C-alpha cells in the first residue's frame, strides 16, 4: 500500500511519455492499464509485451521498461523494480535521471547499499540540484550511525495484524485506532484497482495492555517455532485469532466506500480529524486529472456516534491533504500535502487552530522537507516531531525521523531513529510516549504477514548514574537538584537520594549537560556525550559542589490563563554590574535555576514569542548576609488567551458598570498599564431572556460601557475593541425555554477580555 499511503496519484504524470507513431497492440493494452492506475494488470501486460513481441521498436521498449519499473515501484515490489531498472539503465543509459534515483532506492530497499551508493552517485552527477544524490552517496560510506542505538529497542510484531495492510496506529481511549485494508464484510468485496486490495477503513482495538501481552506471547511462540515460516504460522495462529476477533470497525458513519486513512484526536477525544478521499459526487469530486484527491475532515462524537463530518477549509480538489497530527495543546495541526510550492513530492505543513478558526498552511521548511516525500507526522507530549521520509538519509524506503522543535523550528535538524525502528523497507506512522519509552509504528519489513503491519516497541534504559558530592569532604549530598540541559533547554529534573545518587536514561547521539544545584553550594555542571557508544550497561559520572555564600534564584514560569507551567520561555538573569548573563529555556515543568553573586544588582527577564515579556529587578546582596535561596514565580499572558472578569456582572436589562464591577476593571487597567503594547477585545454577554437581536444590542452596549470605563482611567482607546455576543455563548445551558433560577442567569451576564496582541 506504499503509494496509496503516499497518495501521489498525480505522480504518474511525471513519467516520461515517449512518443511512438504506431504502438503495438500489447503495448497499447499495457498503457491503458497504466493510465487507469491498475498497476498489477499493467505490470503483467508490460512483461508480456517485452517477452512476446518479436519485432519491438527501441522507443517502445524504453517506454515499457520505464512504466514497468514504475508499476513495480508503485506495488512495492522492490525486487522486480530492481531487475527492471537494471535492464532499463543497461540498455538505455541516457534514460531520464529519475530512473537512476528509482534504481538506487530499489537497491537500498533490497539491502544492497554499496550498489545503491554507486547509483546515487550517478544520479548526483546527472541531477545537481537534487541533494539526495550527494547525501546518500556519503551516508552509505559508513552505515554504523544507523545502528548505534539498536540494542536499546525491542520491537515486536502485533497479533492484531491481518493478511492485508494494517498501519498508522493512533492512541484512542484505552486502545488503538488504525487503518486497515482487511476484507470487508458482506457479499460484495470492493477492491482498489491500483493493487487489487480492499479499500482502506478505520478500525479499533480496545485494549493496548492486552494487545501488548498478546504480542509478548506471540514473540515467545515465534521463538519456539524457529525460523521456519510454517512453524511460526502454527504457533501464532491462536494468538492472532484472539486479537483479530476483538478488532472492530472504528465507526460505520466515518467509513465509506472510498479510502479512510490516518487520523488524529483532540486532547479530550471528543473530535477527530481524519483522511478520506474527496466524497463530492460526480466531476466535482475529482481533480482536473480525473483523480479523487485526499482531504482532511473533522467530526464530533455525539453520544458515542461520530457526527457533523466537515471538510477542513484548506483542502482542495486539485491536490491531496492528509496524515493529520495535533500538537498536545490542540493549537497546531501538522499534515502532509503535495500542494504546489513544496520542496518535493509530499511535504509536511502546519496550520494554527484558534477560536474555531484555521490559519493558512505554512510549509515546515527545508530542515524537515526534502526533494523526496515527508509524511506521517506525529507530535509527542513535548511538542517534538516524528515523521517518515525517503528524502533524508536512511536505510531504505521510508525511514522514521525525529526533530526537536523550538518555536516550531527544527533547531537541531533531524535525526534518523536507526535500526531496528528503521529497516531497509518502509517504516512509518510512529506514535510514542513522552520520552519515547514505548510506542507503535508501521512497517512492511519481511517479518510481516503481508504488506504493511503494526509493530510495538519498547526502549530499554541506557542507565547513567550521577553522584553529587561535597568537593571538600567527598561526602554525598542528599536532596540536590540535578537538571538535564540539552542545547540550552531544560529537560528532566531529578533529586539525589541519601547516597547522593540519581539516574537518567540517556539517548544515543546526544550531547548532554547535567547541572547539580543545592542551597549553600555553587552550582556545577558536567558534560556527557553519547556520540560514541559505551559497551557498559550502566555508566557513572560524578559532580562535586563547593560551599558558597552565593544566592540561588529558582522559580516557575506559568501561563496566567490557566496557571500551567510554560515551556519554551527564555529566562535570563543579568548581572547589572559586570553585564554577564545566565540564560536557559524552560522545559515542560516551566522551572529555572540560577546563581547570584553578592555585591551586584540583577535583572530577571522572561521572554517568549507572542507572550508578554516580564522584567524584574533583584537588589544586590551583601556578602555573608544574603539568603541562600530566592524563589520567584513569573506569570505570562499570551495572544488569544481569554480571561473572565470574575465580578463584572450586570443588573437585568442594564448596561451600567456596578460598583463591584469597577474594582475588577481597576485591576485590568493596572494590567494594561504594565503592558503598554497589549491590545485586548472586551467581550460582553447576556443571558437568554429577551429576543436575540435585543440581547446582541444590549451586550454591545455593555462592552462599550466597559471600554469607556477603561478609557476614563487612562487607557488608549486604540488598544480596546468592544464586541457584544448576546446570548450566543451561554455557559450553563440556560438557553431559551429552559427554566433557570436568577443566580444561573446572572452567570451569563458577564464580560471577558481576550488578548489580541502583546507587541
Automatic annotation (TrEMBL):
Residues 1-19 form the signal peptide. Pfam families: CarboxypepD_reg, OmpA, PD40. GO terms for cellular component: cell outer membrane. It is found in: Cell outer membrane. The lineage of its organism: Bacteria, Pseudomonadati, Bacteroidota, Cytophagia, Cytophagales. The keyword Membrane applies. TPR repeats lie at residues 62-95. This is OmpA family protein. InterPro entries: 6-blade_b-propeller_TolB-like, Bact_OuterMem_StrucFunc, OMP_bac, OmpA-like, OmpA-like_sf, TPR-like_helical_dom_sf, TPR_rpt, WD40. SUPFAM superfamilies: Cna protein B-type domain (SSF49478), DPP6 N-terminal domain-like (SSF82171), OmpA-like (SSF103088), TPR-like (SSF48452).
